[in-house]
Each structure stands twice: as structure tokens, then as C-alpha cells.
Amino acid sequence: MSSCGGRSRSARCRYCSSSITVAPDACAVQCSQCNGVTRIRRSSSLVIRPPQRPVGFPCHRGNKRAVLIGITYAGMRRGCGQLNGPLNDVKCMRQLLCQRFGFPNECILVLTDDQKDPCRLPTKDNIRMAMHWLVQGCSSGDSLVFHFSGMGAQVCDENGDELDGFDEAICPMDSFQKGPILDDEINDAIVRPLVPGVKLHAIVDACHSAGVLDLSFLCRVCSTGNWQWEDHRPRNGQCKGTSGGQAMLISGFSGGKTQFSVAADSYASVGAMTHSFVKAVQCETHGVTYGRVLTMRNIMVNGGNTCNMPGPCGGAPISKIANFSGVQEPQLSSSEMFDIHRRAFAL
What we know:
- This protein has 347 residues and is of the alpha/beta class.
- Among the domains are: 10-43; 64-257 and 326-334, Rossmann fold (3-Layer(aba) Sandwich), CATH 3.40.50.12660.
- 18% of the residues lie in helices and 27% in strands.
- The protein has helices at 86-101, 124-135, 175-178, 183-191, 272-283, 290-293, 296-302, and strands at 2-3, 9-12, 19-22, 28-30, 37-39, 48-49, 64-70, 108-112, 143-149, 152-156, 166-170, 181-182, 199-205, 217-221, 227-231, 246-254, 268-271, 318-322, 327-334.
- The strands form six sheets. An eight-stranded mixed β-sheet has the order 8-7-9-13-16-19-14-15, sandwiched between helices. The chain has a three-stranded antiparallel β-sheet with strand order 10-11-12.
- GO terms for molecular function: cysteine-type endopeptidase activity.
């Protein structure tokens, strides 16, 4: 999904009118002045090629594979501090996958912006290649996990496939240079390739993340306090489904307001969304269902400002929750509807 070449050009931010340099293959670009995202019209002659796996990516193809991405954006956002939590979110997720669900350590690909290996940095190109690595050659019985902890964004919809008129996106570490990755591309990359018998779970801790996989059905708390499915299939009739497998996204509703927590140096932070998910799963010793996992809503509402979790991998104790995504309510999206109180949850 990288371009075949071309020259960078300039565009104007639709929010603050700043001049932005646009990468050749970008369909949207993020402004470093105001963080707003502007859609870019691309030439119809642009050729898109599937990415090749870098040398630094795992060669193991077990039936349990995961991509874990954490981005702090340290030193990359003008006038804004770095995010507290994403690096520890990745460590907590890796620990959960390995210890609770038996994921082989060598089948987990981690991209974080504190790594020295350029192949393991969460750039736009590397994230695209990681998504391709995750689903490539998937077959019945595979369990795949995609976790992203960082910034999200919205941009006006162009093709009429969004009920709210906006595409959602995740922001790589070079989003201000190459633009975010839109939900249309994420759907094409890790949802459409899922064949029968394959399950994908995505956990996204970012603002504007509820529709970031463009899944057809959304389950959230209705006015009566019960969980209820809503039909979010595109009005234009566009197919956004899998090739027979199932995709599920655990994300959160947020107003897009970023909040930072400041912790002492001897303590570490985790993101509110990731923390609530991990804690909800860990609290269930057996017979956990999707409905029980969604009790993470109670953790979000009543968890307070501390979490008192042991630090992953022998790190500093985690005592602060950084609600950098502004998450207010967890939501479950899926490529198909099901009874969340009866279906067992397993990764």
C-alpha cells in the first residue's frame, strides 16, 4: 500500500489555512499547527502496490498473531506534550496476550516510537506493512489481534459510506508529514481479507475510534441502560464486510478532548481504554463473555484516577490513568451481530 513514486506537493489546512506538505500517496494530511486533518484529492493515475514484509518483521506464522502499536508523539506536536500511556499500554497488552491467551511471544509484532530499529517504528509505511503481515495467508482457526494506542482523527467523508459524514483515522508517528491512515484503508487491509474461521479483535485506544475499522454493526448502551446493536452499514450500499471471517473492535466513544495526567517519575501511566479492557478481562477467572468484558464501562466510570496495577515486565508500578483519548463509554463493533451475553470471549 505504498506508492510507486511521485513528488510531494503543498496544500492548505482547511481549519487554520497553514501550508502543509503532502506526501505523494496521501489521501489526507494532518496539520502540525492545529492537528486538524484535511482530505487531499489524489490523481486517478496513482498506482498503489501491496507492501512487502521488512527484514525486521517476525517470520513465525502461528495461528495466534498480534500487532501492538503505541505512539507518544514525543517532540512531534507543536505546542503539545507527548501522550502518557501508549508505551505501557503495549506492554500490558503483550503480557495479557502471552500469559492469559497463550500468544507466542515471537508472533507478536510491536511498533513503538521509542525503538532504535527503524523497521519497528510506528511510521505510516511500517503500520501499513504490519497490518498486511497480520492477515497475510490467514486461514481457519487463526486468532488475530490489532491494538493501537495513540492519536485518532476525523476527516470529512467523500464517498458516502459514513452515517455521520466523517471518516475516522489513526495517526502514525509521521502523521504530520505523511498523513493519517483512514478507516477505508484499515478496512481493506485487515477486515476484507478475513476468510471463514478467522477472528480478528482490534482494541483501539484513541479519540474518534468508534468506527475506525468501518464495521457494519455497533453495540453500545442505549437510553434504557442495556447494550443494543445498531446497523451502521453504509447507505451507499458499499460492502465493508469480511471474506467470511469475523472482525470485532473494542473502542470508545469520546468527545475528542485530550486529557493528560501527570505522574511522578517513579510511576507509570496507562491509557484509560486499554487499562479498562485489561482489567475487565483479568477480573474474569472463567466463563467470560463479551458482555462481561464490556463491564469495563464500570471501570471507566468508577475507576477514579488511580489503577494500582503492577508494572509490566518488571517496570515501574502503574498508578495513573492517562485518558488521552477522552474515552467516556466503551463500544463494541462487529462485522456481524451476536448475543454478547452468551458468546464466550477468547483471543
